[in-house]
Amino acid sequence: MITVHHLNNSRSQRVLWMLEELEVPYQIKRYQRESTMLAPDALKKVHPLGKSPVITDENRVIAESGAILEYLAERYDAENRLKLNDEDERLQSRYWLHYAEGSLMPLLVMKLIFSRMGKPPVPWLLRPIGNAFGKGVQKGYLDKQLATHREFIEQHLASHAWFAGEQFSIADVQMSFPIQALTARGGAANSPAIQAWLAKVQNRAAWQRALQQGGEVKLD
Prior knowledge:
Elements: E1 2-7, H1 12-22, E2 26-31, E3 54-57, E4 60-63, H2 65-76, H3 87-115, H4 127-158, H5 170-185, H6 192-202, H7 205-214
Parallel strand pairs: 1-2
Antiparallel strand pairs: 1-3, 3-4
């Protein structure tokens, strides 16, 4: 049976969602973040990098969100629930699968780091300087970059039902975490297409089952 090594408030939530969409049996081994927000060392016993998500299936250890989602789709989507027959949609799905972690998430992680430079574990004497520096980087660089990405995604979703096109795919599963983070850290108040997509996602029965299994994800 598949084991999902699940870290709270992490990308592994979308692996649970994928498994629920495919209705594949799995079990969860839970890990809690340290006070530093880093993953516990126990995860290094599963994979040398000690990161989540990671799954074990038979004798295989598979890490990285995109690789896990592709593996699950290829091995367990016997009913072709997420299969895309249109070549253009397959290309779109592949693009967004890689865009999520290659282009968008690095900016969102930087946003999180710089927003916390005035908070523990930064030494209290350095917090005023860290806070000012963090706000400066966000205003001068990160917020502008995220606004560009937000508009790019908004324009795409304004003319497509799902990220690959008219059909739900693993691209939507992959993009769910950065969209949640973008909404929490970058704002999407003026992005109705993004909000509509997220509402559709959150209304899916598989999404709700995954939340029951993995717990609520808090990214603000």
